[in-house]
Amino acid sequence: MTARRRANGRGTVGEYSIYSAVPMVRLRFPSGNGRWVPYLLVGAGISYGEFNDAKPNGAGLVIGAKGTYPALVVGGGVEYFLARNLSFNFEGRWRYAWDHAITIAGGPSGRRDMSEVQFTVGFRAYLFEFGKKH
How many CB atoms are closer than 10 A to CB 95? Predict the structure, then answer.
């Protein structure tokens, strides 16, 4: 996720990027003979945020915005199986990362909460099966 940062009277001074590592649990609810599988996702982890890509409006400003912070992801989706190990899916996720410390010398400083919504369409190929008896 990338957010643009603004300083009072200067406009956009650069970008603040966030990278997350969030292990997730997927709760599946198979239906329709196992072809349609709706599911819910939930996970907690960490995010790393940093200021980058300074813009000309930010010339001369000292910006401190780098650190590791907690993150949470919730979401859900549906998977349609074409075969036993091949499926298409549609998924929506909301990621929330809080308490990001951002300081701009001579401008606003403080802590910020960041969130984003993602919608994806994908294709999955399951290469291994664990715990299934043949």
Answer: 21
Tens digit of pLDDT at every position of the chain (134 positions): 544 445 556 667 778 888 999 999 999 998 878 899 999 999 999 999 888 877 776 677 777 788 899 999 999 999 999 998 999 999 999 999 988 877 777 666 677 788 899 999 999 999 988 876 65
Pair of tokens at residue 72: 């949470």
Question: How far apart, in whole angstroms, are the C-alpha atoms of residue 41 and residue 52?
Answer: 31
Domains of the chain listed by start with CATH number: 2-125 (2.40.160.20)
> Given its phi and psi angles, is residue 87 left (phi above 0), alpha (psi -120 to 50 degrees) or beta?
beta
Cβ(54)–Cβ(94) under 8 Å? no
Quote the tokens at residue 23.
Answer: 């292990």
Rounded to whole angstroms, how far apart are CA atoms 91 and 41? 10
